[in-house]
Amino acid sequence: MAKVIGIDKATDPSMTVYDPACGSGSLLIRAADEAPCEISIYGQEKDNSTAGLARMNLVLHNKGAGVIVGNKSTLSAPQYKDENNPELLKTFNYIVVNPPFSDKSWMDGITIPDSYGRYSEAVLGVPPEKNGDYAWLLHVLKSLKSTGKAAIILPHGVLFRGNAEADIRKKIIDRGYIKGIIGLPANLFYGTGIPACILVLDKEDAADRTGIFMIDASKGYVKDGNKNRLREQDIHKIVTTFLTMDESDPKYARFVPNEEIKVTNEYNLNIPRYIDSSEPEDLQDINAHLNGGIPETDVDSMAEYWAVYPSLKEILFQPLRPGYLCPAVDKDEVVSTITSHPEFIRHADQVDDAYAQWKETVTHDLMELSRDIQPKELVAKISELLLDDFAQVPLLNKYDVYEVLMEYWAETMQDDVYAVCYDGYEAGREIAYEYVTKKKKENGQTIEVKTDKIKGFEGKLLPKALIAAHFFGEDVKALDTLRGQLDEVSAKLEELAEENGGEDGLFAQLDDLKKATVGARIKAIKKDPAAKEELAALKEYMSLLDAESNYKKAIKQAEADLDTKLEKKYPQLTLKEIRHLLVEEKWFAALYSGIDAIHEAVSHHLSARVTQLVERYEYTLKECEDEVDQFEAKVKSHLERMGFVW
Predict the structure, then answer these.
(1) Which class for 393: exposed (0-12), middle (13-18), buried (19 or more C-beta within 10 A)?
(2) pLDDT tens digit string along 92-112?
(3) Exposed, middle or buried by CB within 10 Å (0-12, 13-18, 19+), for 582?
(4) How much is the pLDDT for 190?
(5) pLDDT bucket at 203, cuts 50 / 70 / 90
(6) What are phi and psi of 212, to 5 degrees?
(7) DSSP 8-state secondary structure symbol assigned to residue 588
(8) How far apart, in whole angstroms, are the C-alpha atoms of residue 120 and residue 125?
(9) Residue 562: which residues within 8 A CB-CB, separation 6 or more?
C-alpha cells in the first residue's frame, strides 16, 4: 500500500500523508518511510490507548512531529478540518487506511446528509446503514486533494455488491477515481477469513482515465499456521506489476477499459470477470484409455520445457499413431534421462552464469560494509540486481529466486549486516557463551539462575561449524567417522534387541536392556549348558554396549578438543579471513544452495509430469479388464476348491 500510492514522488515536507484509522501507526510509518523526504504525518484513532501507542511508535521511528488524534470516531467526528473553513475536511496528498471491515455502527452520531458532504444522494450517495465499507471509502475520497492518491483495504464485496453500494460504485467509476484494484488472498488478516482487495485511488487526471488496472494476486501466498501470508516475492510482484502496468501475464494482471466495465459488466468490478486466473483442467483422453498412447496435446502443453530442451522431447517420446505418442524410455529412467541430457546441463550452466554475474556485482558492497551503509537500501539494491540477472533465465521464476534472498535476509543475513555495519567485521571474532542454569527459590517462586559454568558457545557472526570446516577439516572428518561408527553400533544394538525381543526371544528374561541388567543375566547363566545360545547373544549385546559407550566417550572428548581449538581461533581471525568466511562461505553458500534447489525443482516438475502421463495411459481399458478377469478366475478357482460355488 505504501509503495503503490506513489509517495516516493513526494518532493516537499509540506506534503501530507493521512490514515483515518491509524491503529498503532505501523501503516503510516511504512508509508512515510517510502517518501524521499520528511513528510507531514496525520492520523486518527478511535481508541485512545491505541492512539497513544501510535504516538510512541512515531517517536521511536524518528517521526515525532507526526500528529495523532485519539478518542474520536473518524466518521462521526473527523478531527482534521480545513484551516480556512472548519465546515470542510482537511485534504491530504496521500492516504493509506485499513479500516474495520463492514462496520455496522458507522452511522452512530452521523446525520444524513452529513455536514462535510461525504454522505449525500446529491453527491456520491449514502452507504447502507449496516455496512460501513463505502462510508470509509467516501471519507477517503472527500479527504483527498485534487491530485491526491490513496490506498484502502476493503472486503471483496465492495467490488460487486448491489443496491445503494452499486449506485455509489457507478458514480465513483464514472468520475475515474479508481486507478487500480489489487485482489488479495483469502484468510490473510486476523479476525476474518474473507478475501480483501486494495483499491488504489487517484484524483489526478481522473476525468481522463480510460480504465482500471486490475491485479489478481489471490494465488500468491504461503500457509503460515492457520492463516495465509504474503511472501516478499508476492509483495514485490504486486508492486512491480502495478507500478509498471505490466500486462505480460493476462492471468495475473490487465488494464480493463471503461467500456468493458460499464457496458459489458454493468459496473461490476468483480476481478474474475476480467482476469481468468484458473488453471486449465487436466483432461483425461478417452481414446488413449481405450486404444493406448499418450495424447500429443498433453505433451505439447509442456512447450515451455521443450523450448529450452528441444531434443529432449524426441528422446522421451516417439510416435505411435496420429495424435498419440508412446514413451521411449522406461518410466524409472525418466529422471536420469532428463538430468543427464546436455540441454538440461546447459540450462544449469545458465543458472550458474546468472548467479555468478550477480555475485560478482554485489561482492564489493558486501565486503565493504560500514556505518555509512543503510541495510534496507543494501538489500533493496542487491535484490533488484538479482531479479535483473535472473530475468532472462528460462523456466526459473525470478520471483522464486528473489524469495530465496529475502527469506535468508530475514532469517540470518539482516542481523549479520546490521552487526557488521555497527561493529565492523571485527564482530566475526566475537563468541556468545551459554551458561549452565540452576533452579532457585525466590519470594516463593522457582526461578532459573545462571551460573558461572559454561555449557557451550557459538560464534556471534560466524558459526562454529563454519570455522571448523574451514580451519580444522581433519578434526571434523575424524569426528564424522566416529559418529558414523557410533551409528553403526547403535543400529546393531537395535537390530539385536529386535531379533531377540518378545515373549519367546532370547532376551525374554530381561526386564530391560541396560548394562547392569545384561551383566547380571550373563553372570547367572554362564555355567548353564542349556543357555548357550542366550549367553552368546547377551555377550554380543554387552560387547556392543561397551563399544557404544567407548564411541560416545571418544566423541565427547573429540568435541571438547575441537571446541578448545575453535575458542582459541576466533580471536586470531584476520579481517580478510572474516570477510571471506562471512560473505563467501556463509552468505553466498546459503544463497547458492537455495537457488540450486529451485533449478532442481525444474527437473522434478518435468519428470513428474512425464511420469504421470506415462502411468496414466500405461494400460488400456481392455488390458485392465483382462487383468480383472484373470484375477476373478483365480479367485473363483480357489473358492471352488474350498467347496464354494457361485
Answers:
(1) buried
(2) 999 999 999 988 989 998 988
(3) buried
(4) 79
(5) very high
(6) -130, 135
(7) I
(8) 5
(9) 468, 472, 475, 476, 479
Residues 68-88: tens digit of each pLDDT: 998 889 999 999 999 889 889
**pLDDT single digits (tens) 321-371:** 999 999 999 989 999 999 999 999 999 999 999 999 999 999 999 999 999
Mean per-residue pLDDT over the chain, rounded: 93
CB-based contact 136:152 (threshold 8 Å): yes
Q: What is the DSSP letter of 279?
A: P
Q: Tell me: the pLDDT tens digits for 35-50? A: 999 999 999 999 999 9
How many CB atoms lie under 10 A from the CB of residue 64? Answer: 11
Q: Collapsing DSSP states into helix, strand and coil, what is residue 453?
A: strand
- Amino acid code (one letter) for 602: V
- C-alpha grid cell for residue 547? 563399544
Label the pairing between strands 253-257 and 227-229.
unpaired
- Residue 379's nearest CA partner among 399, 362, 396 is 362
The per-residue pLDDT for range 278-305, each reduced to its tens digit, is 888 889 999 999 999 999 999 999 999 9
Beta-bridge mates of residue 325 = 294, 319
646 band by pLDDT with thresholds 50, 70 and 90: low
pTM: 0.83
412: DSSP letter: I
Q: How remote is the C-alpha of 19 from its chain's centroid?
A: 28
**Burial letters for 6-39: b for 16+ Cβ neighbours within 10 Å, e otherwise?**
bbeebeeeebbbbbbbbbbbebbbebbebbeeeb
Cell of 96: 493509506
Buried b (16+ CB within 10 A) or exposed e, 258-279: eeebeeeeebbbebebbbebee
**N-term to C-term CA, the chain:** 73
* Cα→Cα distances 518→69, 498, 499, Å: 77, 15, 16
Beta strands of 184-327 (E only): which ranges?
196-202, 211-216, 222-224, 227-229, 253-257, 294-295, 317-321, 324-327
Q: Is the peptide bond before 128 cis (omega within 30 degrees of 0)?
A: no
State the DSSP H helix or E strand holding residue 435, giving kind and residue range, or none if neither: strand 431-442
Q: What is the DSSP letter of 533?
A: H
**Element holding 371 (H helix, E strand):** none
| Alpha helices, DSSP H, located in 501-620 | 515-525, 532-569, 575-579, 589-616
> Is residue 10 a contact partner of residue 25, using CB atoms and an 8 Å limit?
no
The pLDDT tens digits of the residues spanning 468-478 come to: 999 999 999 99
Q: Which long-range contacts (CB under 8 A, 24 or more apart) does 577-583 make?
A: 578/425, 578/426, 578/428, 578/429, 578/461, 578/462, 579/367, 579/425, 581/428, 581/462, 581/466, 581/467, 581/470, 582/416, 582/420, 582/425, 582/428, 582/461, 582/462, 583/363, 583/366, 583/367
CB 252 within 8 A of CB 235: no
The three cell numbers of residue 478 are 575424524
Could you report the per-residue pLDDT of 435-493, keeping only the tens digit for each? Answer: 888 888 877 788 888 888 888 899 999 999 999 999 999 999 999 999 999 999 999 99
Long-range contacts at 455-460 (CB < 8 A, ≥ 24 apart): 456/563, 457/431, 457/432, 457/433, 457/563, 457/567, 458/431, 458/432, 458/434, 459/428, 459/430, 459/431, 459/432, 459/570, 460/419, 460/427, 460/430, 460/431, 460/432
One-letter amino acid of 563: D
The residue behind cell 552487526 is 419
Q: For the chain, what's the residue count? A: 646
C-alpha cell at 394: 528460462
